[in-house]
Automatic annotation (TrEMBL):
Residues 57-187 form the Cytochrome c domain. GO terms for cellular component: periplasmic space. GO terms for molecular function: cytochrome-c peroxidase activity; electron transfer activity; heme binding; metal ion binding. Heme c 1 binds at C79, C82, H83. Binds 2 heme groups. It is found in: Periplasm. This is Cytochrome c domain-containing protein. It comes from Pseudoalteromonas piratica. Keywords: Heme, Iron, Metal-binding, Oxidoreductase, Periplasm, Signal. Pfam families: CCP_MauG. Residues 1-18 form the signal peptide. Binds 2 heme groups per subunit.
Length: 359
């Protein structure tokens, strides 16, 4: 996957004189820099696991299940209730409202919230990629803020069994999939969809639901940002200001954790908490970050600039961002955005509201 290309940067002498004077304390005036020791472009195609190979039928089924509240305890919330394309496949909230929620995004209301910010599902197909991953090599996870799921299939069914997210309190974790199987077997369209996607007589199972959901989630990728184009060799893909921001991102220490194809090492550092009052969590990917406000695991930062400012003079984290760096780094981070799949089905086989109680 990694392309060993040396990217030559425009020298500071080609920038405006003012830019040179303002950045003379950093290495943004280096004549050359090779970024391939820190970053690589995302793959241009998805690699699927051998135990869950791709099929169009499975993808179609998974997308409908993702939007269908039939998978929730009270049949009122879907995966898409908190992972919606209008909010970068997250929900635009600090903390999500799941099983008793009504409405969409910041306007959603309910009595119980999740204890942590809802992450986007964009590029989950690439979770686990490193600089050393080979072009056609499949990698997987781990997933969730605490890395508790080892596969995307395992992740996909986690919220269904969580009372705050989708399960509610009408069924136990042990009961819910028997109930879901019963519901799905009474819907002729789902019987046909499962039969088309899987072989065998007993195809409506927890395992197959997980496989279908994971197959759809692997479709939701953003792998053609201007930063990807830059890493693939098009040095004109980034402007001079964006290059300055990229260099500052590296020089102040951001890239020590936010590196690799996803700009995340996917590690948890218990002794390096950004927000001291919260448990440590994995390093999040910065891909498409401009589309997934609010920020941080508690959703406490409304804007990218706010999130960057948390790292001002944080030498305890190995990061030393000055206030004058905030805007430059934000300008670079916005180059990480790429078009992403955003289709919303008009209906789901259960006949329930698409996406649950979100309207």
């Amino acid at each position: 996957m990694r392309k060993y290309i040396s990217i030559l940067l425009i020298t500071c002498s080609l920038f405006s004189l003012t830019g040179c004077e303002e950045n003379q304390q950093t290495s943004t005036d280096n004549q050359t820099r090779d970024y391939t020791n820190l970053f690589s472009a995302l793959p241009e195609q998805i690699i699927y696991p051998t135990d869950n190979p791709y099929s169009k039928e499975k993808e179609i089924l998974g997308e409908l299940l993702f939007w269908d509240p039939v998978l929730s305890g009270a049949q009122n919330v879907a995966c898409a209730s908190c992972h919606h394309p209008n909010f970068g496949w997250a929900d635009g909230r600090a903390f999500s409202i799941g099983s008793d929620g009504v409405g969409l995004g910041p306007q959603r209301y309910g009595n119980e919230t999740t204890p942590i910010h809802s992450p986007s599902i964009v590029n989950m197909a690439f979770t686990g990629l490193t600089m050393d991953t080979q072009l056609n090599e499949f990698v997987s996870g781990p997933y969730f803020w605490d890395l508790r799921a080892t596969t995307l299939e395992e992740q996909a069914i986690g919220p269904i069994k969580n009372p705050v997210e989708m399960l509610g309190y009408h069924y136990s974790e042990a009961e819910i999939f028997d109930e879901i199987k019963y519901r799905l077997t009474t819907i002729p369209e789902y019987i046909d969809l499962f039969s088309a996607a899987f072989e065998g007589d007993d195809v409506i199972t927890e395992t197959n639901i997980a496989k279908a959901l994971a197959t759809f989630q692997r479709k939701v990728i953003a792998n053609n940002s201007r930063f990807d184009l830059f890493l693939r060799g098009d040095i004109s893909a980034l402007s001079e200001g964006e290059l300055i921001g990229l260099n500052k991102f590296i020089d102040v220490g951001c890239a020590d954790c936010h590196n690799g194809p996803l700009l995340s090492d996917n590690q948890i550092r218990q002794d390096e908490k950004v927000i001291e009052t919260l448990d440590a969590v994995r390093t999040p990917s910065l891909r498409n970050i401009s589309q997934t406000a609010p920020y941080m695991q508690d959703g406490s930062q409304a804007t990218l600039n706010d999130a960057i400012s948390l790292y001002e003079d944080r030498e305890d984290l190995g990061v030393n961002i000055n206030e004058g760096d905030f805007n430059d780094i934000e300008v670079f981070l916005r180059t990480l955005s790429s078009p992403v799949y955003n289709h919303i089905p008009e209906r789901v086989p259960s006949g329930l509201p698409v996406g649950g109680n979100i309207n």
